[in-house]
């Protein structure tokens, strides 16, 4: 079995998914045509492959049909047949032999995957990708060094249409609808982020995950599925990555193979490229939601009940320290954002994040963002540095986007020393785990504190844990609102106030369950009432 050099997942190494014109994306001798908005007007160029071991750029051919039959056949054997053909015609030297060897093992891997294909985006297929790439290459040549901004779509449309019509003269005729889709793809290739631009424009998609040129996954309406969209090859992905990071003054290359950034619309992007990413350049994009969710939205979605919303609002307003915990993508940041907007207008707040996602609408707000080290390994400013600095900024509350290291101890100390009402999130699967996680994170501070001391610190700093989960149907729920009761001996006591009972799944796959109050009246009620907030008498009565 031939393995990809560097120990990659056994996958066929060989031809592009579809044959680019002239047998490859020809290196352009033209200097890179970046316009003012950072839009590169060139075909997938010979972006320096991030390899440090001198491997040649690698394209990947992956059959889709054996994994998941496309519902309407648009991704069916015809399109894949083209890719196979490209392989078979010897364009790749010994790639064919490698493919033949690789296939067996790859089939084994893919056979394990039964991932639904996005049923809401049926227009894209290999043929469209091939044509779009071909037209784009010619169009870029025609445009010469002309500069276009991302909002120059209408200006570019006539010339793109002209080139498309010329190219299509030598191709099988396309129905008008398909032609219109193709034109948009070409424009996206020139002015946007290529094949994924369509997904970025679609508001029902919340997340994009590009694992390899032909492995694009999305989260649509809470559910993850595989997209039909693909890139030509790794160079094509690298070109789009370059387009994303260049305006940020960053580069993704062998020296900086991991890059965090944001798209112009505010979406959060993480990029990691080979050799760290073994299947090819990888991108994870958390789409920015223009309309921020509110507490009422969470009630409407069934993520919380009205009683829970009232309680959470009262907790924030009366300055309880709270931790929101949950798994990845469970909705922690969203809930933190909603809760931070319960903070009374007059208070001074400092927010600290790795990549600013929170949108706190307060006049007296300072928003801080950490910074990674530069290429020389200098200039790093960590969340911990920022928490320490924040303490000198006279904040009334500190909001740390996520505690994932030694800053947790500083955060707890801040909570214990006059910064009541501070909020943060941690990755943990249930309230008890949240405590263990906080303890572990405090130990990462380098202070050699016994666990008992840390537990005491947590017990006196944190009053409420809001536990969030992404359920199997993709919905997000607050599964626990739990009060930290304090220490009994060496044990930290927790008491659930609201919980979500999952009863099963309906025929449509939707989770069936309900929130209920446990009947426990939290100790914090006296603190809430002391701050002047009246909670309904029956708020904690068992349902
Ligand atoms: N209550 C909710 N109902 C529906 N969708 C939600 C809810 N909360 C969050 N989401 C959506 O879920 C996705 C993930 O949310 P969010 O970024 O808040 O998660 P997270 O736990 O902070 O993720 P990470 O661990 O990656 O930081 C977003 O697209 C968000 O809009
Ligand atoms: Mg988050």
Task: Provide key terms for this protein.
elongated, 9-stranded mixed sheet, alpha/beta, 543 residues, binds magnesium ion, disordered N terminus, 6-stranded antiparallel sheet, binds adenosine-5'-triphosphate
Outline the fold blueprint.
Blueprint: E1 13-14, E2 59-60, H1 77-88, H2 95-111, H3 126-143, H4 153-168, H5 176-191, H6 197-201, E3 205-212, E4 215-220, E5 223-226, H7 234-245, E6 258-262, E7 268-272, E8 282-286, H8 295-301, H9 306-317, E9 322-326, H10 332-340, E10 349-353, E11 365-369, H11 383-390, E12 397-400, H12 407-416, E13 423-427, H13 431-443, H14 451-461, E14 464-470, E15 476-488, E16 491-505, E17 511-517, H15 524-530
This protein binds adenosine-5'-triphosphate and magnesium ion.
Short description:
With 543 residues, the protein is α/β, with parallel strands linked by helices. It has helices at residues 77-88, 95-111, 126-143, 153-168, 176-191, 197-201, 234-245, 295-301, 306-317, 332-340, 383-390, 407-416, 431-443, 451-461, 524-530; strands spanning 13-14, 59-60, 205-212, 215-220, 223-226, 258-262, 268-272, 282-286, 322-326, 349-353, 365-369, 397-400, 423-427, 464-470, 476-488, 491-505, 511-517. Magnesium ion (MG) binds at residues 332-333, 402.
Describe this structure in words.
It contains 15 helices and 17 strands. The chain is of the alpha/beta class and 543 residues long. The strands form 3 sheets. Strands 11-10-12-13-9-14-15-16-17 form a 9-stranded mixed β-sheet, sandwiched between helices. Strands 5-4-3-8-7-6 form a 6-stranded antiparallel β-sheet. The chain has a two-stranded antiparallel sheet with strand order 1-2. Helix 12 packs across helix 14 and helix 13 packs across helix 14. The N terminus is likely disordered. The chain binds adenosine-5'-triphosphate (ATP) and magnesium ion. Magnesium ion binds next to helix 10.
